[in-house]
Design goal:
Layout lengths: L1 H17 L1 H23 L5 H27 L13 H9 L3 H12 L6 E2 L7 E2 L4 E2 L5 E3 L4 E3 L4 E3 L4 E3 L4 H30 L8 H32 L3 H5 L3 E2 L2 E2 L8 H9 L24 E3 L13 H9 L9 H8 L4 H13 L6 E3 L4
Antiparallel strand pairs: 1-8, 2-3, 4-5, 6-7, 8-9, 10-11
Helix pairs in contact: 2-7, 3-6, 4-5, 6-7
């Protein structure tokens, strides 16, 4: 009883500590609101028209920034579907086997009915011992959350949450609006910052808020700009932070561009097809998080073919699986099922060049 009680206390303390970075950001934002609205706009700006314009624009950016931050924090990360979890009989069978190769045979048998195309560096099926499941493509186990997270990018302490498939769009909007928030404060506070050094401001407490507001906003702008630029590059390349560090491994080998479909489709996979939802912190990403379109996949002969495959038997089997678990909108289906214009022509050319020497290499979209 004592060990379990101590573990519970430890976990409770950890949960509290994890919220400290979020509390720090909340306090900084609350102070910036007070300093900008009350001390700068209301107390220091004399021109009424300028004051109204500054307050309207500021509050529009502030609302979007807080909304995106809230969504990033409180959107629960998605976990793999039940189809990827081992059944009770499979768990027993796996536990009885001592040899790694025998265990891999069991896992390969289970994986043949699932849309799994990535492997470990050694070519083995990606399996999570803690969650007892076969990891879908781009899924990783988070040691902080102690769960497998779909399309995991990283665990962010500043939001006390895993950034993954369910909230990556919100995270991108959070970076964008927080950068815009800091840049707007820096730009509108600049002239009053200069007045501080030229003794053009009244000798009140507002002058010190204006000074520190400019310094904090400009410093945060630099760090946010670099982070936002990096994640924009990741979106254009269709990579997560983890995949940028270690490229995914397919059956044909490591391929850092394995999930890239071109800048336009990569962007729409995160933000969706409908432009009106792009700037709004509402979920509009495409797919189900368990399977992703890919350019080049060296198919396992035992794996089910994609819906665009030419084998009717495999096509029927693919239609029978419940992936994705929910019907896609027409706009989502276009991205997940449409193949680039080079698919048919290059497939024919590839067959002429390679012949029977490499029959396993195909160009496809994974459902």
């Amino acid at each position: 009883m004592a060990p379990s009680g101590s573990r519970s206390i430890k976990r409770g303390c950890q949960r509290v500590l994890y919220w400290i970075p979020v509390l720090f950001i909340a306090l900084i934002v609350a102070w910036s609101y007070y300093a900008y609205v009350l001390q700068l706009c209301i107390e220091s700006i004399e021109d009424t028209a300028q004051k109204v314009v500054y307050l309207l624009v500021y509050h529009a950016i502030f609302i979007m920034f807080v909304w995106a931050y809230w969504q990033t924090i409180f959107t629960k990360p998605m976990n793999p579907l039940k189809e990827f979890h081992l059944s009770y009989s499979d768990k027993e069978l796996l536990e009885r086997e001592d040899r790694g190769e025998s265990q891999q045979e069991i896992l390969r048998r289970i994986a043949k009915d699932l849309p799994i195309y990535t492997r470990t560096n050694s070519g083995a099926i990606r399996f999570c011992d803690r969650c007892q499941l076969l990891k879908p493509d781009r899924c990783h186990h988070c040691s902080v959350c102690d769960k497998c997270i779909l399309k995991m990018d990283h665990h962010c302490p500043w939001v006390n949450n895993c950034v993954g498939f369910s909230n990556y769009k919100f995270f991108m909007l959070f970076l964008a609006y927080s950068l815009l928030y800091c840049l707007f404060i820096t730009a509108t506070d600049l002239q009053y910052f200069i007045k501080f050094w030229t003794n053009g401001l009244p000798d009140t407490q507002a002058k010190f808020h204006i000074l520190f507001l400019f310094f904090s906003a400009s410093m945060f702008s630099v760090s946010l700009a670099s982070l936002f630029t990096y994640h924009c590059w990741l979106v254009c390349k269709n990579r997560s932070t983890l995949e940028a560090v270690r490229a995914p491994v397919f059956r044909h080998g490591t391929d850092k561009n394995g999930f890239s479909l071109g800048v336009s489709k990569n962007f729409r996979q995160v933000f969706g097809d409908e432009v009106k939802y792009w700037p709004i912190p509402i979920f509009s990403s495409l797919g189900d998080g368990c399977s992703f379109p890919s350019c080049l996949v060296n198919l396992d002969p035992e794996q089910p073919s994609s819906p665009t495959g030419s084998n009717p038997a495999n096509k029927g089997a693919a239609e029978g699986r419940q992936f994705p678990s929910k019907p896609l909108r027409e706009s989502q289906s276009r991205l997940l099922t449409s193949t680039p214009s080079w698919t048919e022509s290059d497939s024919a050319a590839d067959k002429d060049k390679k012949g029977a020497s490499n029959p396993g290499m195909t160009i496809e979209n994974e459902a």
